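Example 3.2
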Amino acid sequence: MPTQIRENRAKKMLKNNELVLCMGVNQLRTPNIAMIAAACGFDAVYIDLEHNPTSLESAAGVCVAALGMGITPIARVTSHDPHDATRILDCGAQGVMVPHIQNAKEARDIVNACLYAPKGHRSAFGSGPALGYAAIPQAQVCNILNDETVLMAMIETPEAIENAEEIAAVEGIDVLHIGASDLSTEMGIPGQYSSERMRAAFEKVAGAARRHGKQMGVGGVRQDFEFQSWLIKLGMRYLTGGSDIAYILSAGRADVKQLRELKIA
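Structure, written as tokens:
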């Protein structure tokens, strides 16, 4: 394999049952944020294209920078439209997180869109950023990208929780990712991540993932290390620890609080 081709660090770690720590990129749009995430020790970044005005071009810049730093660029796309996922994959993302997956059919649609034949029906375009523009045959392009692309189905509703078993059974899906904010809101208990009902949902998804050789991911459960420890013991192996804006606000608020408490002579 040409030396410029980057392996998918997060996917390799998931296969080895290691914990992948990911930083969300929500508001910052320059490639520097990937370097900052790598300097912090994160294994991956996910570029949120669902909840902000980040353009495809800006997201591509972050993806390319992440590749250069040896961390995995993942994009949370806006919809189930296959072009949303394939365009950012063509621009350098090594994985996609697709929101609001409700059942096995929708999960299979992700696979069909994002993997090349015979595993799916992704449109072939040759080499690109994820391959370091290596000059390799098309068959090798397809095989490498099929192996190095991580596909995440976001589980965000009670219906999806009920269908976790059939979603986990879909070949090609790597991670069942629980969007804790959306799920708790849909359940009528927004933000109550450690409630009994939410714990039961986490347990159901973790069991389904384990039985089908997949991994469970979680996002939204920030700054609760005791609960995060419970999730890791349950089987969570992909965690979005926090986002750029969350880290800035947390550090900024703490600094301002300390400065406000200083006495002025």
